[in-house]
Amino acid sequence: MAPNEVYSRAQVRRKFGLSERQLQSWEKQDLVARADSYSISALIAFKTLLKLRESRVTAREIARSLRSLRQKLDWVKQPLAELRVVSDRGRITVHVGGQKMEAVSGQILLDFDAVELGDLRSFPVRKRTTNRTRESEEWFQRGLELEETGAPVDQAVEAYQKVLELNPSAAGALVNLGTIYYRQRRFDQAEDYYRRAIAADAHYPLAQFNLGNLYDEQGRVKEAHEHYKRALALNPQYADAHFNLALLCERMSDPLRAVHHWKAYLKLDHSGQWAEIARRQLERLRDAVIR
Predict the structure, then answer these.
(1) Domain count, the chain
(2) Are the CB atoms for 209 and 228 separated by under 8 Å?
(3) Burial letters for 10-36: b for 16+ Cβ neighbours within 10 Å, e otherwise?
(4) CA angle at 206 for the pair 222 and 140, rounded to the nearest 5°
(5) pLDDT at position 74, please?
(6) Three-state SS sequence of the chain
(7) What is the pTM of this model?
(8) Which domain holds residue 27?
(9) Are residues 176 and 134 in the same domain?
(10) CB distance 263 to 249 below 8 Å
(11) Does 226 fall in a domain?
């Protein structure tokens, strides 16, 4: 029951019933990143992608929507994992900040029960990029490719450092460097990069979540709890944050809050292996309270 567990490519294929050909096709269309192993966040992205395909949304439309989301919500690095992305009568929508947005257009979709007509608006379009920004993004993509293809870690670190030379406030590169050092158990360096990412982008939930994971790993329970909460404040649909908080609250002997987060997790993810774990934990807590 380890939220930071890594799954091999073969395990992911078996879990979701995918052929190698299908997985390679999705990678070529940039629906999922090429990798030999996957984190829990990646599994969430796979699950979302499968649900969209079950709703008969074409791969081309999904790819178009993901490109649009990355442009309009540039603090979101993995839309399928970090956001609630769903098919709504043939179009892809995403829940952001308590509102529903059409992925391609960026148009806020009106909920007449909650939003007044005058609140209808579009998300701002990203500003025109400079050559320096474009070069920074190219180095960032290079870093991702190096990580995903299993290249020597030093090469990925060098690519991300190039990003920071061009753009010192590139939160994505800072987080990825932090994660590289986290995996090497070089926790001081990891903490430094995660904190720099938060300073660069206070609205980046993954940075808060990863810092929470780091503190959790070190047994710094109160600090881990605080940063998981901050990740949820930025993205209330962050299923992994609910999962980790539920486990943490159990360790802190706070069963009521654990129950709250297990229930919240199950609302976001009601099927699959992790949902089964959540249900078992929830049932166990209920039995303990009754006794």
Answers:
(1) 3
(2) yes
(3) eebbeeeebeeeebeebeeeebbebbe
(4) 140
(5) 66
(6) CCCCCCEEHHHHHHHHCCCHHHHHHHHHCCCCCCCCEECHHHHHHHHHHHHHHHCCCCHHHHHHHHHHHHHHCCCCCCHHHHCEEEEECCEEEEEECCEEEECCCCEEECCCCCCCHHHCCECCCCCCCCHHHHHHHHHHHHHHHHHHCCCCHHHHHHHHHHHHHHCCCCHHHHHHHHHHHHHCCCHHHHHHHHHHHHHHCCCCHHHHHHHHHHHHHCCCHHHHHHHHHHHHHHCCCCHHHHHHHHHHHHHCCCHHHHHHHHHHHHHHCCCCHHHHHHHHHHHHHHHHHHC
(7) 0.57
(8) 7-98
(9) yes
(10) no
(11) no
Cα–Cα distance for residue pair 205/235, rounded to 1 Å: 7
Tokens standing for residue 110: 């009106």
State the residue for tokens 């993954």: 206
Enter the tokens of residue 116.
Answer: 């007044």
Same domain flag for 207 and 182: yes
Q: Are 239 and 44 in contact (CB under 8 A)?
A: yes
Residue 116 belongs to a domain: no
Residues of the chain with pLDDT under 50: 1-3, 110-128, 291
Cα pseudo-dihedral 16, 18, 23, 24, rounded to 10 = 160
Residue type present at position 196: R
Q: What pLDDT is stored for residue 288 in this prediction?
A: 66
